[in-house]
Design goal:
It contains 27 helices and 31 strands. It is an alpha+beta fold and 853 residues long. It starts with 8 loop residues before the first strand and ends with a helix. The model has no long low-confidence stretch (mean pLDDT 98). Bound molecules: O-methyl-L-tyrosine and zinc ion.
C-alpha cells in the first residue's frame, strides 16, 4: 500500500486561481529522451480571487531555469508543483524544463508512439509538459513553435492555425482562449488525407486526417463522417467551425477513444481508421459517432468549457447526447436508442448499483481520471435527454441558443446550465437538479386500475442507498406512456407523465374498454421499471406496440422471464417468446437492423444482476447454460426460417457501411450464428471463404469457433492479417469471446505468451484482458483462474500505465453479487493489488472503493 494516503479533492472547496493568464507562448525542442519546453506566460492578478498564492502545477519535470520579468527567480518545490513570490501587478513568467517523452508509458503528457511525438493533456496531463496553472478555468491563447532535428518529424502539428514553417520548425497560433487540457502537439512521419469544407457563412476550412504511412487507405470514411458532422452541427445547432483548419491524427497508443483538442483532435487509431476489408460495420458506426463527438466538443467543451473537473458532465453528457442525436439522424432512431439502452444497462447500471456508484456530477475524487465513467458520460446524456423531454423540443432549442450566447468563451458549471433552462422556460428546475447530485438508479413501480371508464396508473419511485447516500429524495422522472386497445390501435398517443412524488396516480378517463398501457416509451428515463404483467400481455406488446423501443423491450422481457425460469426452475424456453419472435422475424416490413436486435437476449451479466436484485445468488454456470439453451431453442424453432432470412439479407454489390446494408448484414449474421448450430458450420465456412469485408469474415469466424470448427479459419485469418494491428486485436478477442467458460482463462493466459501480445499497448491489453473480464461465465469460472490472471496483469501494468489499469479494475465491481467462495477469491485478488508497493493513486482509489462495498 502507498504510504501517504492520497488527497481527496472536494467540489465544495473550489476557489478561483489567483491570476489571469493573458497569453502563452511555448517552444518545444523535440528530442526523444530530452525534450526542452520553453514557456513565456503573461500573468496578472485576478481581482475575483481571494487566494493570491502563485502556484504552478508540474510533475516529472526537470526545471532548467525560471525568470520573472527577465530576472532569475527562486522557486519552492511543493506537493504537485512549484511556488514563487511574484509582483502584485502584471508580469511575465519564463521557464525552461526538460522532459523525457520516450520514458512516458503512461500516455499522459508528451509521449512517443511508434516514433511519433504525441500529447494527451485531459484531464491533468499538461502539468507533465511544463509548469502551468493546469486547471480548466484558466483559459488563454497559445502560440507555439516546434523545433526538431533530423528527418524523423517532417510533420509538426498543434492547435489552431498553421503559421510560418520551414526545415526543422513549425509555428502554430490558436486565437481562441482555451484551458491547457485542450493543448495538443503531434510530430512525426505522417501522411495527410486532405479535404475541405465551406462553413455556412462561406468560410473555407482545410481538413486533414494524418496517419502513419501505410494507413492512407483507411481515412476516407472518417473524412466523410467529419464533413457530415460539420454540416449537422450547423443545421441542427447553428454551430459553425471557427478556425482555418481542422486536423485529426491517428495514434496507436492511446488510453481512451479520442480527444477533442482544439483544432487538432487525436484519435486512438481504432476509432478513426477503417477500410471495408479491415473494419466491421460496428467499427464504422462507432468511428462515425466518435468523429462527431469530438467535433461537437468544439462548441460543447472547448468554446464553453468546465469550471472544474466536477463539472465534467457539462461537456460530456451534452456531447454524448448530441452525438446520439447525430447517429439517430444519420441512421435509425429506434435502433440507436435500443443500442444505447443495451449499453447503458451493461455499463452504467452495474456502476450505479455497486460500490463505484457516484453522482453524474461527483462531489469528491482522488484521481479525476477515474471519473471518465459511464455515469458521467452516458447517464449524463440521459439527463440531457430527460430535460429535453420535459421542456419540449422548441424550448430545448431556445435554451441551447441562450447557452451558447451567454457562455461562449467561459468555463461553466451545472448551475449555469440549469439557469439557462430556467431563464428561457420560466420553469423551476431545482428538483430536476437532483439528477446531477443523487447517485443510483431509481426504481419505478407501476400498478394499474380500471374502474368505470377510467384507467389509472399508480406510479411510485424509490432509490436504494448508494455509497455516501443513504437517504434519497424523489426525483423528477419523465415517464412516456401510450395506451392501446385490444386490436393494438393507439387510443392515446404518447404522453409524458411527470413523476415527482414518491407515489403519484395518473388517470385517463373515457375508456369504454380497458386500455393496455405501454410504459416508459423510448426509455424516457434511466430507471428500472417494475410492472407486474403476464407473458400474454408482453406477447401482445411484442406484436402490437406502436413504440418501436417498447416493442423491442417486450421481447426482451419475455426472453428474461424465460431465462430466469430456466435458471430457477429448470423450465424449457418459453413458447410464447419463440412464437412471438418468429412472427416478427418474418415481418419484412420491419428494418433488418431492428429485427437483428430483436434476436438478441439479455446478457449473462445482466441476468446475474437481476437474480442478485431478487435476493438470489447468481450461478454463472447455470446462467450460461440457460442462455445457451435459449439460443439452441431459437435455432431449432426457427430452423425453417433461418436459411431464408440469411439468403434474403445478402447484400449485392460493393461494400457500403451505411445503415441499410449494415442492417441487412447484422440480420444475416445473427441468422448465421443460429444456423451454424444446425448445419455444422457449412454456411459459415462458405461465408468465411467468400468474404470481401471484415463484417462477413469476422462473424463467420465467430460462428465457426462457436461450433468448434474454427481452427483452419483462425490460422488463415492470422496469416492474412498479421501485419494489421487493429485486425489482430480482433483475432485475440474473438477467440476469448468464443471460448467455452472452462477454457477462457487458459486461452487468455496462453495469449500473454504470444509474440504479438504487446501488453503496453492499451488496445492489445484490452483485446485480451478486457475481453477476459467481459466473458461472464469464463471470468467467473469456479476455479477463480480468471480473477488471478487479471489481477496478475493489472499489477504488472500499473507502474507502466496507471490509467488503463485503474479503469480495468472495474471488472471486479460486481463481486458482491456472487457466492462466498467467489467473493473470497476476488477479495484475495483485490487485496493483493491493494498491497503492492508504490501502487498508483489511480488504482489505489479504484481498488479501495471496490473493496469498501
Ligand atoms: N474528452 C475525451 C475523452 C478523454 C478523456 C480523458 C483522456 O485521457 C485521460 C482522453 C480522452 C472525449 O470525451 O472524447
Ligand atoms: Zn467527450
Amino acid at each position: 500500500m502507498k504510504d501517504a494516503a492520497p488527497q481527496t479533492i472536494y467540489l465544495k472547496d473550489y476557489t478561483p486561481f489567483g491570476f489571469i493568464v493573458d497569453s502563452v507562448a511555448l517552444t518545444f525542442r523535440l528530442h526523444p529522451t530530452a525534450t526542452r519546453v520553453l514557456s513565456t506566460i503573461r500573468f496578472r492578478p485576478n481581482p475575483d480571487a481571494t487566494d493570491n498564492r502563485f502556484f504552478l502545477h508540474g510533475e516529472q519535470l526537470t526545471l532548467i531555469s525560471a525568470k520573472i520579468n527577465g530576472t532569475d527567480v527562486t522557486t519552492r518545490t511543493v506537493e504537485g508543483g512549484i511556488e514563487a513570490d511574484v509582483p502584485n501587478a502584471p508580469f511575465t513568467w519564463e521557464a525552461e524544463v526538460e522532459i523525457n517523452p520516450q520514458a512516458n508509458t503512461a500516455l499522459e503528457g508528451l509521449y512517443m508512439s511508434n516514433g511519433m511525438y504525441c500529447t494527451q493533456c485531459e484531464a491533468e496531463g499538461f502539468r507533465k509538459i511544463t509548469y502551468y496553472p493546469d486547471r480548466p478555468d484558466v483559459m488563454s491563447t497559445f502560440d507555439l513553435r516546434i523545433e526538431a532535428d533530423g528527418d524523423n518529424t517532417p510533420v509538426m502539428l498543434s492547435n489552431g492555425n498553421g503559421a510560418e514553417s520551414g526545415a526543422g520548425f513549425a509555428n502554430w497560433t490558436d486565437p481562441w482562449p482555451k484551458p491547457a487540457y485542450l493543448f495538443a502537439l503531434v510530430a512525426g512521419d505522417l501522411i495527410a488525407h486532405e479535404d475541405s469544407f465551406t462553413t455556412m457563412s462561406g468560410k473555407p476550412v482545410k481538413l486533414a486526417i494524418w496517419v502513419r504511412p501505410g494507413d492512407e487507405h483507411k481515412c476516407a470514411f472518417g473524412m466523410e463522417a467529419l464533413k457530415k458532422s460539420m454540416t449537422w452541427d450547423e443545421e441542427v445547432y447553428g454551430r459553425e467551425y471557427d478556425l482555418d483548419e481542422f486536423n485529426i491524427v491517428a495514434v496507436d497508443d492511446f488510453n481512451m477513444g479520442a480527444m477533442e483538442n482544439k483544432g487538432l483532435n487525436i484519435f486512438n487509431s481504432s476509432c478513426v481508421l477503417a477500410s471495408p476489408e479491415t473494419a466491421t460495420d460496428g467499427n464504422f458506426e462507432r468511428i462515425e459517432a466518435i468523429i462527431a463527438h469530438e467535433y461537437f466538443h468544439n462548441w460543447t467543451g472547448n468554446r464553453i468549457t468546465c469550471r472544474d473537473w466536477f463539472q465534467l458532465c457539462l461537456k460530456e453528457g451534452l456531447t454524448v447526447f448530441r452525438d446520439a442525436q447525430f447517429t439517430a439522424d444519420m441512421r435509425s432512431e429506434p435502433v440507436k436508442r435500443i443500442d444505447d439502452v443495451i449499453a447503458l444497462r451493461a455499463r452504467q447500471f452495474p456502476e450505479d448499483q455497486g460500490p463505484l456508484s457516484h453522482p453524474v456530477r461527483p462531489e469528491s475524487f482522488q484521481e479525476i481520471n477515474n471519473f471518465y465513467t459511464a455515469t458521467v458520460y452516458e447517464k449524463g446524456a440521459e439527463v440531457i435527454g430527460m430535460l429535453k423531454t420535459l421542456v419540449g423540443d422548441e424550448a430545448y432549442a431556445k435554451a441551447l441558443d441562450l447557452y451558447f450566447d451567454r457562455h461562449d468563451g467561459q468555463a461553466c458549471t451545472i448551475e449555469d446550465w440549469i439557469q439557462v433552462f430556467e431563464d428561457s422556460t420560466g420553469r423551476d428546475l431545482s428538483q430536476f437538479k437532483l439528477w446531477y447530485s443523487q447517485s443510483g438508479t431509481p426504481e419505478v413501480t407501476v400498478r394499474e386500475e380500471y374502474e368505470g371508464d377510467t384507467f389509472t396508473l399508480h406510479l411510485s419511485q424509490k432509490s436504494a442507498p448508494t455509497p455516501g447516500q443513504d437517504q434519497k429524495a424523489p426525483q423528477v422522472i419523465p415517464v412516456a406512456v401510450g395506451l392501446l386497445n385490444d386490436n393494438g390501435d393507439e387510443v392515446l398517443p404518447t404522453q409524458v407523465l411527470e413523476l415527482t412524488e414518491t407515489e403519484q396516480s395518473f388517470t385517463f378517463p373515457g375508456h369504454a374498454t380497458r386500455p393496455i398501457p405501454s410504459i416508459l416509451r423510448g426509455f424516457s428515463a434511466p430507471v428500472t421499471l417494475t410492472h407486474d404483467i403476464d407473458n400474454d400481455r408482453r406477447a401482445f406488446l411484442l406484436a402490437h406496440d406502436t413504440d418501436a423501443f417498447n416493442r423491442w423491450e417486450a421481447g426482451r422481457d419475455l426472453a428474461r422471464d424465460s431465462l430466469l425460469k430456466a435458471i430457477q426452475q429448470g423450465e424449457a424456453p418459453s413458447a410464447a417468446y419463440l412464437d412471438g419472435l418468429k412472427a416478427l422475424l418474418r415481418d419484412d416490413s420491419l428494418d433488418p437492423a431492428y429485427r437483428a436486435l430483436m434476436l438478441g437476449q439479455p446478457s449473462q451479466s445482466e441476468l446475474a444482476a437481476t437474480l442478485h436484485k431478487m435476493g438470489e445468488t447468481p450461478d454463472p454456470a447455470a446462467i450460461h447454460a440457460a442462455s445457451e439453451a435459449l439460443r439452441e431453442a431459437k435455432a431449432q424453432s426457427f430452423a425453417e426460417l433461418l436459411p431464408a432470412l440469411y439468403a434474403a439479407n445478402q447484400v449485392e454489390g460493393p461494400y457500403r457501411p451505411d445503415a441499410g446494408p449494415a442492417g441487412q448484414r447484422s440480420l444475416a449474421n445473427a441468422a448465421l450464428s443460429l444456423l451454424t448450430r444446425l448445419d455444422g458450420g457449412e454456411t459459415a465456412a462458405k461465408q468465411f471463404d467468400a468474404a470481401d469485408n471484415m463484417t462477413l469474415q469476422l462473424s463467420a469466424l465467430g460462428a465457426l469457433l462457436d461450433a468448434a470448427k474454427g481452427e483452419d479459419a483462425l490460422s488463415a485469418f492470422y496469416d492474412q492479417w498479421q501485419n494489421d494491428r487493429l485486425v489482430i486485436d480482433k483475432w485475440f478477442s474473438m477467440q476469448i469471446m468464443q471460448a467455452k467458460p472452462e477454457n477462457v482463462a487458459t486461452t487468455a493466459q496462453a495469449f500473454t505468451q504470444h509474440a504479438d501480445f504487446d501488453w503496453k499497448n492499451p488496445n492489445r491489453f484490452r483485446a485480451v484482458m478486457g475481453v477476459l473480464a467481459m466473458h461472464h461465465a469464463g471470468f467467473h469460472f469456479e476455479d477463480g483462474a480468471g480473477y488471478t490472471l487479471l489481477a496478475d496483469w493489472l499489477i504488472k501494468l500499473d507502474p507502466v500505465n496507471p490509467q488503463t489499469t485503474a479503469r480495468m479494475c472495474s471488472a471486479f465491481q460486481t463481486w458482491k453479487r456472487y457466492d462466498e467462495t467467489r467473493q473470497g477469491k476476488i477479495r484475495t485478488e483485490l487485496e493483493r493489488i491493494a498491497g503492492q508497493d508504490g501502487l498508483s493513486r489511480d488504482t489505489t482509489e479504484m481498488v479501495t472503493r471496490i473493496l469498501n462495498a
